[in-house]
Write a structure and sequence with these properties.
Shape: elongated
Strand content: 25-35%
Helix content: under 10%
Number of helices: 2
Largest sheet: 5 strands, antiparallel
Strand order of the largest sheet: 4-3-2-1-5
Structural class: mainly beta
Length: 131
Amino acid sequence: MAVPRPTNAVPASRWASRPSATPARSTAAPARPSTAPVREDGTPRVAPGVYLLTSAASPQFSKPITVRLIRERTDRHPYCGWTWIEVYQLDARGTAVDRRELYVRPDGLRPVPPSTATGAAARHPTAKAAQ
């Protein structure tokens, strides 16, 4: 499928054709399930949850951080393969310390499994459990 040249002065190396409507067959298993919602350009949507952001999500996260994703910003139009998200940055205890808007690659978000101990039980162990 031919892609029209953008009207702005973007170099040809920065734009490429969109993914075809019918993907080519391959023997490898797909990285994501086919039922996952995607944007028109093929970028996967992001679901709310707790994620670990590393340099795979964006170069700014050379030191990984944990975030609770509030929502994906759909009112902005990022480059193919990137998205804007609203998150709460979490500390080591899982408490929100800052609200941020981040520009990331959805494929780089790593889900954090829920902990077995949650809420007040995790923060305030009983005297019996401490012995």
